[in-house]
Amino acid sequence: MTEPQRPVVVLDFGAQYNHLIARRIREAEVYCEVVPGDTPAQKVLERRPAAIILSGGPASVFEPGAPSMDPALLESGIPVLGICYGMQLMAHLLGGRVEPAGRREYGRTAMRTLKPTPLLEGVPATSVVWMSHGDEVKAVPPGFEVYAATDHTPVAAMGDPRRGLYAVQYHPEVRHTPEGTTMLRDFLFRVAGLRPNWRPADFIAGAVADLRARIGGRRALVALSGGVDSAVAARLAADAIGDHLTAILIDHGLLRAGEVEEIAAAFPDLDLRVVRAEREFLQALAGVEDPEAKRKVIGREFIRAFERAAAALEPRPEVLIQGTVYPDVIESGAGHARTIKSHHNVGGLPPDLPFEVVEPLRWLFKDEVRRVGEALGLPDTIVWRQPFPGPGLAVRIMGPVTAEKLAVVREADRIVREEIRAAGLERAIWQAFAVLLEARAVGVMGDRRTYGRVVAVRAVESEDGMTADWVRLPDAVLERIASRLTGEVEGISRVVYDITSKPPATIEWE
Length: 510
Ligand code: XMP
Description:
The protein is built from 14 helices and 18 strands. It has helices at residues 18-27, 41-46, 85-93, 180-191, 200-215, 228-241, 259-266, 278-285, 291-311, 326-333, 366-375, 380-383, 403-422, 475-488; strands spanning 8-12, 32-36, 51-54, 80-83, 97-113, 126-139, 145-150, 157-160, 165-168, 220-224, 245-251, 271-276, 319-321, 356-358, 431-445, 448-461, 469-470, 492-497. The chain is α/β, with parallel strands linked by helices.
């Protein structure tokens, strides 16, 4: 996929906030990419960058083997902004003096502007910035001027306007720097002269044209999962190549109520093959209790079912469209991956399938995928669908999965989601769902004693699923959920609400 427009290229030196730099730039409607910090100048220049940003990083420029960059990029005439380590590196490479900070500054720090500069236009003379550094620039390189300082950092911002080189010691990309967005926008729009033009409609036009060119007259295949990424990728591909696209949806019987129908309704024009494989999956899962074992079985069966369905297609598709999104690309490409539990890939396809893989969303963050989905006219139920695990309802049934338990948890899940939606909380909540426990509890209905199933309701808020907090749902919502679950779902006699955060618990119960 050719990338749209001339990008801002972020050279990544390994700081934990780096993905935020890319996010803030995208939020300013400017297209950007993250590449490893030591990418050769020629490779960076091939991307025709409109501006370059040097990220922060945990190293010190003095350490042997400290990450560096091709200095030619600083002489290329392209505007550059160095951030934290990026500033120290710029100073170090251009003849300034970097030293360990006399006193380390960490956290919110008051900064004074010393000299007017387009870099800090619109920023008050005194503002709060977020500092986190062990070294600092003691003397700026020849040609540079100092724009701002804090009590303990004499050079908090510097630049050489003639060469378009600027740098800041603080982190404008984090929310703790309240003027950070203004500062980054000042760099993009005032210093580098960019325009905000990274909008869904531009992306869609570019992506459709690109898919058409890449696929040519060949046939392509896409696996729909019910999630927003694969749906948006499929919509783009369908708009690009029409009836040369076939979609496969493996219905493993572990999806939620109405999902298959929703997807089919959203793609009336698509050659959609729904593979009904519930029986095979349930057979393979029979008696399997251990959560990891369940995942293995489902992963294996999923790939089998997909391969079988793909092999039966005539004529044979040569291209596989995948909904890979940008965080996956950064994680695998730039080498600073945070560790994601391997089980989170369950329900995906292996890399060695006999297709040319095309990934139209590889430049987008999740919220951008949603905006594109909306612009493409996909229904809200798909665009705003909460994350749902690949192994589906199987990991929301404690103990072995049976058709009967599946029916109970699916119905319970439908009610929980309906009530969350009715309360207007669906978008604010990361995930809300029901879990069917192994336990039984005594209840009373009419004047009859019951001994029924226990359902746990879980609702969490989260940024990325790595940590999460339980949602303080209004009592009235909890009450309605409990009374509907016990009243409408046969066999449920008790409802409990999960009030553990992650950590120590995980989001799913299995
Ligand atoms: P946990 O339970 O580990 O979940 O806190 C974090 C996020 O990952 C989802 N999840 C999965 N997604 N396959 C997936 O595709 C899986 O096996 C899986 N297990 C958990 C979970 O729903 C939450 O969003």
